[in-house]
Structures are given as C-alpha cells and as structure tokens.
Amino acid sequence: MRLLEERIRKDGEAVNETVLKVGSFINHQVDSAFMDALGRDFAQHFAGKGITKVFTIESSGIAPALMAAKHLNVPMVILKKQTSKILEGNVYQTRVMSFTKGTSYELTLFADYIGKDDRVLLIDDFLANGEAAMGAARLISQAGASLEGIGILIEKSFQKGRSRLEEAGYHVYSQARVARLAEGVIEFLPEDGTDTGE
Amino acid sequence: MRLLEERIRKDGEAVNETVLKVGSFINHQVDSAFMDALGRDFAQHFAGKGITKVFTIESSGIAPALMAAKHLNVPMVILKKQTSKILEGNVYQTRVMSFTKGTSYELTLFADYIGKDDRVLLIDDFLANGEAAMGAARLISQAGASLEGIGILIEKSFQKGRSRLEEAGYHVYSQARVARLAEGVIEFLPEDGTDTGE
Fold first, then answer.
1. Residue B67 belongs to a domain with what CATH number?
2. Residues of A with CB below 8 A from B33's CB?
3. Helices B62-72 and A32-45, interaxial angle, to 10°?
C-alpha cells in the first residue's frame, strides 16, 4: 500500500538497522483520518473472507484493529499481555517472548470472546520475528476458531516473521514492507508483493 | 446519553459496590460500530470548542478517543504509563496513584505532541476518583496548552472524580452516570445532567 510507505518516508524516522520510529502518526500520536483509511484498506483486502472478529494485541495494535473492525462491521477483541498465568476463569493463554524487551508474557484470550465458528482477522502495527502473531494464532487454534488472515501496518521484511507465518499456512498482508533500515535510511521492497497468490 | 446507559443495562455486569464489568462491548471486546457512535456523540458535544487534539491514557481509552478524534478530524495522542522517570528526551511527567491497583506510575507526554496553542479534549473510559484525569490536566498545563473538556464513557458518580475535576474548573461530559452499584444492580442518575451549564 503506497499510501503508508509514502507517509513513512515523510514522517518515519529510522534510528538504526532495526528501529523505525512512527510515533508521530501511528503509535503514539495517531493520525485518526489516516488510520481510518488504513482500516478501510484492511477491510477491502480481507472482504469475502467471512471475517467475524478482528483480534489485536494490546496496545499499539488497537487503533488499526478498531478501524478495520469498523469497516468490516464486526467486533474487535484485545488480547492482553499478562505477567503471569490466570488460574481462575475460562481463558486461553500462551507464553510469548518479547525479543525487543528481553522479557516474556502470557498472551491471554478470554473464552467468552471467541467461538468455534469465528473467522478471525488478526491486526497488528509491526511484524518483526512474528512471536506475538504466532502466539495469537495458537490461542485461536486452541479455541477451535480459524485465523483467516493477518494484517500488518509495517513489516520488517528483513526479519523472519512473515516467512514463519506463511510457513504455518497463514495469509499475511502488510501495508508497508521495509527491506532495509539504517540511520536515516528507509528502503521498501521494490513492489508491494503483499498478495501471496490467494 | 441514553444509548450507553441502555447498553450497560443490557450487557454490563455489576460485580459489587465498585466494580462494573463492560468487557463484552467496551474495553476487552469492543463493539466497533457502537464505539463509532459514542465517538460521534463526543465530537458533537464538544463541537465549537476549537479542539485541536484528543488525548487519552493507555490503553482502554484508546478506542473511544480514536473515534472521537476521527469525528473531530484531529489527531489522537496516547499518554503513556511509565514505571519510572524518563531522564532523557523532552517529556512532561507527573506521578499518578492507581487506587484500584494500589500502585503508582509516571503519566508521560512527549513534548513533540503538544504545543501552547493546542486545545485538548481528554477522553477516557471510566471516571472514578479522577486521579488519572487530574494527572493529564497537570501535563497539559505544564505544556502551556488548554484542556477544553473531558469526555468520559462511564462515570462512577458515587466517587469524587467529577467534583474534583469541576472544582479545578474543567468541563466534564459523561455518557453514562452510575449512581449506585451492587451485585447485579446498576442505577443511573435520574437524568443525564451531563451538561454543566456551559
């Protein structure tokens, strides 16, 4: 999606080989009209998949997920990052490593908000090594529901996340695919290549 | 706003005298179309105030704040809860007690996302004792900007938050005002009374 790539070129800041700051319009200050347009694009891309719920992982995926859910006219469900296992209540949990922070957490989904017939679209802001998305996929699988697609704002294509998700059989659509980062340098993949043939 | 009160009667769950669960449509699973309508109501209420930015506190205020920002056609800024003071960078910070959790955090606003000319609308999901909103008001004041209004989904009118904010001179608009909670009991104020005469 050229719209997001153009905005990243204009307002993003490449700090080093791995860190891309988009706090001025994506995940700290949010351009609400732009986010609405990105949500509409996700909804258009996944139209016809029979999506019943949009899932995201707190907290920076909430804005794009909410806009995608609105355009698909379905609910949005927030997966929580808990520091420990919840022993009471009907929940699905799985441990996820956060390589960025060197910590781990229990990704948590309340059973009330998913059913076997649900067809889920997962939305997140960044895709790097795919740990969080793989965790979400495990929870959805545990619940007996199906993960129909994964929508990402910014994919770090030089990391292994996309290939891990595709090898696991998931359809990934990223609105911006970053091929390389360096201080002051942001390069995208030559064409969007986000349609994996489906 | 009767729309939200009706929905709380239908789908909210009063656990005891202080806890009202709205996880099925507000802050865990989010009814995206309903949240869009609540955002539109905030935008209509604060139209004419010259709002330039909508602020919220991570993470359960993000959904209503984003929808309000979209309808006002302004950016949304997320105030972060940090565990410690940030010593580098240009930030405003203030300590906020969380009575619910018995902890405190540094409410943090990056200076890049506020200017002296900004006219801010603060949106949050719950108003109880007003600690978080008072903290946000201090940050906005530190930055030399003006807090033009505070929009709340659910006010616990039996707690002191609203009176604290009004005594400090702020205009508070709550879409649902809960007079009393008990296990299985939810009572609202007799009329919405949310217009404080402005």
1. 3.40.50.2020
2. 70, 73
3. 110
